[in-house]
Amino acid sequence: MSLTDALDVRSGEDAHLVLQRATVLDPVAGIDAAHDLVIRDGKIAELASPGEAETDGAEVVEAEGLHAFPAFFDPHVHLRTPGHEHKEDVETGTRAAAAGGYCGILAMANTQPPVSTAADITALREQAHAGASVPVGFLATVTKGMKGEELTEMVELREAGAIGFSDDGLPITDAGVMRRALQYQHLCGGNIALHEEDPALSGDGAMHEGAVSAALGLAGVPSVSESTMVARDCALAGYERARIHVQHLSAAESVEVVRAAKAAGVQISAEASPHHLCLTDEEVRSLDPQRFKMNPPLREERDRQALIEGLRDGTIECIATDHAPHQPEEKDVPFEQAAMGVTGLETAFAALHTELVRPGVIDLALLVERMSGGAEPFDLERPSLAPGSEANVVLCDLGAEWTVGEDGYESRSANSWCAGKTLTGRVLMTVAAGQVAFRLRSFSLGVAA
Amino acid sequence: MKHLLSIEQLPREEIEAILDRAESFAEVARRDIKKVPALKGRTIASLFYESSTRTSSSFDLAAKRLSADLVSVKAAGSSVEKGESLKDTVATLSAYDPAAIVIRHPYAGAAQMVAGWTEAAVVNAGDGKHEHPSQALLDVYTLRRRLGSLDGVRIWIVGDVLHSRVARSNLIAFQRMGAEVTLCGPPTLIPRGIEELGCEVSYTLDGVEEAEVVYALRMQKERMSESFVPSLREYAAGFQIDTRRLSPHQLLMHPGPVNRGVELSGEAIDSPQSLITEQVAAGLVVRMAILYELLAGGEASANQGEGAGPTPIGTPA
Question: What pLDDT digit, counting tens, does each position of A337-388 carry?
Fold first, then answer.
């Protein structure tokens, strides 16, 4: 399904834009050249030769030296509503997404109360219709109240529009419950996104278990806390011929397990977050929970390298931010007491461009492909720049330097893991579902012809 | 030195400066009048979020011996119990304009955070399972007095390393002073990866006879229920330091309070090799030295020749 058919967004005017002389890159569609990219009636109308597109009635953007990519898709965002609107809501969260170049996001269900009934889904979809800057889809919990005991009414939830299911924030520890959910998926459809962690192994852990946790005296979360659960669920999904999406992979062992399961034919997809791809547990030596406390925790260099290798060989098909807003009072406390999670929507592309593409660790094309790889695992059309596709376009200046947080955030929360960093590469404009969802204030547009 | 937050951040020269200063206070402690006017008119606030006997009483007494005004806040019975955040409590205390805040907190990094919120010098009196720098300094002081130098000295730290801030601070301090450290305990109580700090790890007491110093850690009773050890009995059988395992040339240390009959036998505690009461005595003079170095040390040298600094006490080395 296209993003606009499946997801919800505020209705607005279709843009009529010509991105003149943009460097257009869509590796999946096989596009990598300078074009005039024409957006009209909600679609990519045309990729014309540079300077040749008809500009009558269109807003013309002089985009020479700028890059146009398929806009990004994030399957893992915490919008915090209902219950924690002081951290984020549909409006602020989707504005942050638009500013980060996203044309679609999926919101997690671990709200207060959790999104467990059709009425919850309906209410959220109405909010999205009223105020979402980019199309947003909602997941429902797998188990009632995220207690891990009884399944939600998954059929009714799907009928109400739940895109899929997740108890994200908590693992489903009971293998029997997990198995029933996978069996039931054959009836209700919808992917099941899994937060993989064995609480018996995580214990009171506040960071990755290793030399740094030993030195700091912080209880550690061992990598096997994640990988053993990933292995369990790969086995169950294989046995039930069901489909799972593994969230925020962090450990080298987990990447191995997913790779092996894919090779064995298990229907499994996986995501990694920008912070796990860019940082290691060495950062925690600062004991700064604002930027470096999250679950799963930042792990070691070997884990980071394994995640990068997973991105390269397709074991990990998408990058997901796990955007997790928190207010200062939840973060301005000692590390062990602080809330887990960091924001990421507004910085994901720039951070990965700065940390991985510019140093030559991965290609720009691979990053672009993985940034929108999160749609397909949830049966959504991957954003594309092929003419005729729904217009989901991000325009970036890959040379622009900016300091994160200097001009504030679109998100209601400021707990960005990139806070204070200078990044290279900036989103100038986002077109989502045919509408202009974001333009950088300082980015002046060309004059309409 | 602006704060004392960890041993990790303290170079050997600064450790030695504090120990040298402590030597001079030890001389004062032998006088009839044990009080000096060094910090007269300065305020020291102590903020204890965990129960403590030795550390809190010796910091309090150290402040008084230096003639400072002292405000002591214990979490129990204070606004902390009413849910006040650490940041707000520190803001409240800071309104008294203290020269130093001494803080004990159940979580790692608390002292470091406080240092970011106040103008006062901050002394970490224990933060979670992270560090306990004043304990490490008094232990190094005690050993230096007894042995002259720690260079090449072999020290075994025995017991529940996983849950011990003392183990972490002492490991670093002993190494920095030139000692070779072995951490010993059951594998469930040795943190994974600790050997990357450059120490040896042993899961049995085999070889402890090579050590000049045996430093036993407190074994908390609740560790059994969490499956770290099957029973205190089995723990004691494997790791208790008794007079049979301790040979006459070895020194015995413990941060206190001791569980008699668990990590140490009664005989070992009372043996002539035990430095435990010396450690407590050292606690006072070392904590005086810490407060002095933080609040007057820099000034004294900066104002040399003007005679404006606080009256020097004793004869600092």
Answer: 999 999 999 999 999 999 999 999 999 999 999 999 999 999 999 999 999 9
Chain B touched by A274 (CB under 8 Å):
no
Contacts with A213 from chain B: Cβ below 8 Å: 191-193
- Neighbouring CB atoms inside 10 A of A13's CB total 8
β B213-216/B251-253 pair status: parallel
Does B5 fall in a domain? no
What CATH number has the domain spanning A71-378?
A: 3.20.20.140
Cβ pair B85:A220 closer than 8 A: no
Q: Which residue of B has its CA nearest to A206?
A: B108
pLDDT tens per residue, range B222-278: 777 788 999 999 999 999 999 999 999 999 999 999 999 999 999 999 999 999 999
Q: What's the confidence (pLDDT) of residue B314?
A: 45
Of residues B190, B186, B205, the one with CA closest to residue B247? B205
* Active-site option among A74, A322, A363, A407: A322
Tell me which residue range forms the domain holding B177. 133-278
* Residue A41 falls in the annotated catalytic set: no
For residue B106, being part of any structural domain is answered with: yes
d(CA B302, CA B298): 6
Q: CB distance A215–B168 less than 8 Å?
A: yes
pTM exceeds 0.90, yes or no: yes
Distance from CA of B218 to the nearest CA of A (A): 16
CATH code of the domain containing B17? 3.40.50.1370
Rounded Cα distance, A27 and A18, in Å: 21
